[in-house]
Amino acid sequence: MSRISLSPVTAVTCNEQFDIIEQAAIHIDGSRIVYVGPATAAPPFVADETIGGEHLVAIPGLINVHTHSAMTLLRGYADDMALEPWLQEMIWPFERHLQADDVYWGTLLAICEMIRGGTTCFADMYHFYEHGTHAMIESGIRACPSAVLLGFLPEPERRIANGFAFVREFKDAGEGRITPFLGPHSLYTCNREQWAAIIQGAYDLQVPITTHAAETRREVADVTAQWGAGPIETLKSIGALDGPLLAAHCVYADDRDIAMLAEINAVQGNGIGPLRVAHNPTSNLKLASGFAPVPKFLEAGITVGLGPDGTASNNNLNMWEEIHLAALLHKATTGDPTVISAQQALLMATREGAKCLNLEDSIGTLEAGKKADVVLVDFDKPHLYPRHNVVSHLVYAANSADVDTVLVDGKVLLRKTNFTTLDVHQICAQASTRASRLATEHHQAVAQG
Ligand SMILES: [Zn+2]
To answer: What is the pTM of this model?
Structure first.
């Protein structure tokens, strides 16, 4: 295991006090951070490698709490459509032709994009999840792949059992970097029996669940017709909030839902609460889903993280855009420029994202004892001068191309913008060839009716 010193850097720790340390040193021994503080006060440390510079700002690795990574193969395939026809006429028919290897390469393409942009951990939900997980393990990134269930596909019982087997096999795989979830797609794609089996499985296996909830008005109407109550209320009534549940979107969580969640959080008292929201501002804008009531969530003490969703509804995996939008969007929707400060937006992508994934003890901040998932941002760029406020720049001015170096679990995965574990040219070529084949197969199937 190597010993790496990041020094000198400006460390934006994202810890409880939100300490920002100029002229800092971050010492990494193996997979963990052993020191974060002023370089002048650092204990003696013999490093195998030192990376630093006045222009480098260290932040905790960005955490993407909701994505469908191998949808990179559908990037640009179907845009400017409403969610339901988009899914039913374009996305799901295209995906019917997917093979396991396609998911492997599509996931690798997503991982290249994420590492290049400073994402060090992501929650994934996609078909052939075992194959996607192999890509995660090989790349060195940290990930929470979920065993996804679309209840209308053939043999749902076998698929649920397969999901449980997946969780058992991959829990703590990749030197502990893999944390599997169970992933019932939604209340409108899985029925009562399927949800009951998955909730029981999550309890038995002690893993969280992730799903989509309250994304569109139509979903709320469909779920209410199918289940007799709206999505959030239904999740509560079926026991999905008895353990950790990461719910993407929650655009149509109403005031009653929020009050109910606040009450549950107050009783539970761990400061996180069972329902964690994956806020996907770009996806909600692109599909015209609406505006999630994020300021109300935060006021109610509900944990909120950020995700780009899949690249068919974004169309990139750029967390900087999600941070930027999260800080801007709610100012406009509430008419209040003081809501969602730069600090809150950055925390959603770091410390709060870690809570969304149940990983707050190991990632999300730059602190001694945490896993060394660190991103160095190059501030020697015209759009990042003068440096009045580092956090303001990170949220309102920086972008993914400013990421210089990325470490996950103490290993350098991107060094001065160059990948160390991935052959990006091969991955792009494989993804292109496979995406072309899938499009051809989809078109042929449509032509044949
Ligand atoms: Zn999604």
So the answer is: 0.98
